């Protein structure tokens, strides 16, 4: 009786051990799959964020600029929104091109690039001065406190920061695409050269086989001078 109880207990222990082990392996497989999915998705996710942020962050700043233009200048809704969104669009173009040009200028010592970078710096500074003047300085004239003005000033810098990050990401993406294209062209050229070499080897083999047949024919004629004539 005791032996039977011990066997039943051992069976229950084995079943529970098997279930726990199966559950543990299932969880490990599940977590490994989630980790691998996140690792593979991270580059694409970061690229998506880098593309969307330069267009998303300037939107509230553009709305704020439009409202400031309506309040301080007495402009209409249409004119104010054209100013707000047009100013942010200009800032996006200037900062993206500036980041791209700085990277090119660091890699090369071209005087034209340096002049272009200087022009873009001037345009970027003019954009920031205009943006800060409309939103921060005019708010200070209306009696806004220092903390509010400082926060507003930092908010005005966010579109420039996102545009610079997008410009750097764009440069990295272009460099990566150029590298991949170069590798693809090199691989295609390698395949073409291999096919060309294979054709040369096949042609040389055909010539060698034909030459071998000619030699065998000459030897046959030398061994049988009478050719196809039968002896009488």
What can you tell me about this protein's structure?
The chain has 232 residues and is mainly alpha-helical. The protein has a domain at 1-51. Helix content is 91%, strand content 0%. The chain contains five helices and no strands. It has helices spanning 2-56, 58-73, 77-107, 111-141, 146-223. Helix 2 packs across helix 3 (77-107), helix 3 (77-107) runs antiparallel to helix 4 and helix 4 runs antiparallel to helix 5. The relative contact order is 0.07.
List its traits.
5 helices, 232 residues, mainly alpha, flat
> Helical residue percent?
over 70%
**What's the overall average pLDDT, rounded?**
79
CA(first)-CA(last) distance? 112 Å
Ranges with pLDDT <50 over ≥5 residues? none
Helix-strand topology string: HHHHH
Output the structural class.
Answer: mainly alpha
**β content, as a range?**
under 5%
Number of helices: 5
- What characterizes the major β-sheet? none
Shape call: flat
If you compute it from the alpha carbons, what radius of gyration comes out, rounded to the nearest whole angstrom? Answer: 39 Å
Please describe the topology of this protein:
Blueprint: H1 2-56, H2 58-73, H3 77-107, H4 111-141, H5 146-223
Helix pairs in contact: 1-5, 2-3, 2-4, 3-4, 3-5, 4-5
In short:
The protein is an all-alpha fold and 232 residues long. 91% of the residues lie in helices and 0% in strands.
